[in-house]
From TrEMBL:
<keyword id="KW-0411">Iron-sulfur</keyword>
<dbReference type="InterPro" id="IPR050415">
    <property type="entry name" value="MRET"/>
</dbReference>
<dbReference type="InterPro" id="IPR001433">
    <property type="entry name" value="OxRdtase_FAD/NAD-bd"/>
</dbReference>
<dbReference type="InterPro" id="IPR001709">
    <property type="entry name" value="Flavoprot_Pyr_Nucl_cyt_Rdtase"/>
</dbReference>
<keyword id="KW-0408">Iron</keyword>
<dbReference type="InterPro" id="IPR039261">
    <property type="entry name" value="FNR_nucleotide-bd"/>
</dbReference>
<dbReference type="InterPro" id="IPR017938">
    <property type="entry name" value="Riboflavin_synthase-like_b-brl"/>
</dbReference>
<dbReference type="InterPro" id="IPR017927">
    <property type="entry name" value="FAD-bd_FR_type"/>
</dbReference>
<keyword id="KW-0001">2Fe-2S</keyword>
<keyword id="KW-0479">Metal-binding</keyword>
<protein>
    <submittedName>
        <fullName>Ferredoxin-NADP reductase</fullName>
    </submittedName>
</protein>
<dbReference type="Pfam" id="PF00970">
    <property type="entry name" value="FAD_binding_6"/>
</dbReference>
<dbReference type="InterPro" id="IPR008333">
    <property type="entry name" value="Cbr1-like_FAD-bd_dom"/>
</dbReference>
<dbReference type="Pfam" id="PF00175">
    <property type="entry name" value="NAD_binding_1"/>
</dbReference>
<feature type="domain" description="FAD-binding FR-type">
    <location>
        <begin position="10"/>
        <end position="111"/>
    </location>
</feature>
Length: 251
């Protein structure tokens, strides 16, 4: 049975685009109907494959943005300049089109409703995508585990999931903090700068809270935040990381 499940996850299958939503000027959410999808855990990713008319193929990994509810899946893709796959997904793909996918993939960077203790999520840019899946899974499960999201983003116009995050912020169990690095909105008390030890101390769960912390984003961002967490006394075994970009994995 286990071998069958693994083989199924490693087999390419074709989904159909059922909806596309613009998140920002460079990011788009794609909803897919995948009849043979086996289900997934919040934080997992999948592979997308495109095939050109001449037979050339290109594939990339993308985090799954949705919690598994038994009906369809969603990806949120940020366009990468000069990319082979993301420009097509963001600018060309339309409702009704087929899309080859394979997955789900990953077993470490996942959140499960039965996990004990607080949940700290820290995302940089499009690294918020798998964290959004975790927040959605948290809500769908009716979890009472305290959860916090620290979202590092260049400017307000770059925020992915604006309306969804507003809805999440209304929950008594979830606190959301934005760390703007280039341009802050009017009235923001913190000047634009990267996440630092002071911010983590003021808005994130502390080591004594024994949170499970998930950090996702570009490799330099993830390494910096993970180092700050460990230096502050967090147990490295409870800090889970996911990198993307030229030297990382899912986007």
């Amino acid at each position: 049975m286990e071998r069958t499940a693994i083989r199924r996850r490693l087999t390419w299958q074709t989904g159909t685009v059922t909806e596309v939503r613009e998140e920002t000027s460079t990011a788009r959410t794609i909803a897919l109907d995948v009849p043979d999808w086996p289900g997934h855990l919040a934080g997992q990713h999948l592979d997308v494959r495109l095939t050109a008319p001449d037979g050339y193929r290109a594939s990339r990994s993308y985090s799954i943005a949705s919690a598994w509810t038994g009906e369809g899946i969603e990806l949120t893709v940020e366009q990468v300049p000069d990319g082979e796959v993301s420009p097509y997904l963001v600018d060309v793909l339309k409702v009704g089109d087929p899309l080859e996918i394979r997955g789900p993939v990953g077993g470490w960077f996942v959140w499960k409703p039965e996990q004990p203790g607080p949940v700290q999520l820290i995302g940089g840019g499009s690294g918020v995508v798998p964290l959004m899946a975790m927040l959605r899974a948290h809500s769908a499960a009716g979890s009472t585990a305290p959860a916090r999201l620290l979202y590092s983003v260049r400017r307000p116009a770059s925020v992915i999931y604006v309306s969804d995050l507003k809805d999440v912020a209304m929950s008594e169990e979830v606190a959301i903090t934005f760390a703007y690095t280039r341009e802050a909105p009017p009235g923001e008390s913190r000047e634009p700068k990267r996440i630092d030890a002071e911010l983590l101390k003021s808005v994130a769960f502390q080591p004594g809270d024994e949170p499970t912390t998930y950090v996702c984003g570009p490799t330099p961002f993830v390494e910096t935040v993970a180092d700050l967490l460990v230096a502050a006394g967090h147990d490295p075994a409870r800090v889970r990381t996911e990198r993307f970009g030229p030297t990382g994995g899912p986007r």
